[in-house]
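Title: Prediction job returns without error message
Component: structure pipeline
Severity: low
Priority: P3
Assignee: unassigned

Description:
Job completed but the reporter wants confirmation the result is attached to the right record. Sequence as submitted:
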Amino acid sequence: MHSKDVPEMLNFLSLKDIGDLFSDIPPDVRVDGINIPAGISEEKLLDEASAIASLNRLPSISFLGKGAYRRFIPSVVDHVSSIPQFQTAYTPYQAEISQGMLQALFEYQSVISDLTGMDMTNSSMYDGPTAAGEAARMAYRCSEGDTFLVPDIIDRNVLSVIQNYLHGLPVKITSYMVDRKTGKIDLADLASKVDRNVFGIFAGIPNALGILDDNVFRIQEIKGNAMLVTYYDPISLGAVKPPGEYGTDIAVAEGQQLGIHLAMGGPYLGLFSFRKEYVRKSPGRLIGKTTDSDGNPAYVMTLQTREQHIRRDRAMSNICTNQALMAISALSYLSAMGSKGLRSVSAATLKNSRKLIDALEKTGAGKYPFNAIPFSDVLFKMHLSSSDLAARLGESGISGGIPARDLITFPEEGYHFFSVTELTGDEEIEALAHALGGATR
């Protein structure tokens, strides 16, 4: 880029200077230049960069979660997903040269269908929120009406994607209440809003508050002709009913916990399952099993409902691929863990969430405000201001305590999330309790 082009580009972007491009970075963490000598070798430059990077102070204990979790990944998962034929495979349009990839994706579909109790699963979506957005559009295609119901407490990123996916359709999004005392769906309020104009109902288990909301099981009694879209946690299915057992029409989830490393935020995996009668209205692609001309088992891409493959006006979605490698990681994880292993991980997570509540309440640092059972994400009413909380955590090398209002549509001040998994140790919970012990405003 020539220097004379800079003013024109800034003017087009309505910016004053190059620094405005980085306005989203808080001023107190910006660095005004780095003192590196000019004309040094690449080797010396890397040494300088490493020395500067070593000044970063990384938290030694993490209580972060809300969609991205630190879980144990069996070594076989990375071994299988690093097989070159999986890592380098192109989208399997030509079945005759892609049998390994097609079979793996077929097995993935089968395992997720078994896990959720649903009839069918596609070969994956981009991530949990985009799967939720696709589910909302699919519900519109499969039912009648102009209203999509969502809880008034919902993850902001999920709601934003649903809004974007429904944009352009003659529909509206209406909220139903979550009881502030129990943290569960207000079924009476939901029932009052269900009529023939509602084409879909969105519900989470765990919900946006982290609670295993058993009221979700009763939505089938009041939903009428509306489609029930359930946003679930795949690890929690080791302890709670699968979506297929309580009237779910479309079940979606973020699959990062199934053998996928945190990796700075992605790529992740969208799980997408549904009842078989809606297969022709489903997005993405389905892998099927058949026989070849010699009678041997063969795998093919059975259904491709995007505009590249069929007439645009008949396309179900414009999703252009699937997360094949991530899906293979999920398949490997679930195969390695088995049903017994999944139940063990789920039980350990529930046990640790209970330990966390007991520890923070005992020290007076915070109070769990609901008469309900949380899973990984535990919401506390803290007795510290947000700034003081962040300072104490930082001094102790602990990450966590994200304000609820930053993540979910829950405007109240003083509520913060701490998350646990089966890897959360007693000593980590004790360290958190010690860091926040005796905290008062």
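Comment from assignee: result matches the submitted record. The radius of gyration is 24 Å.
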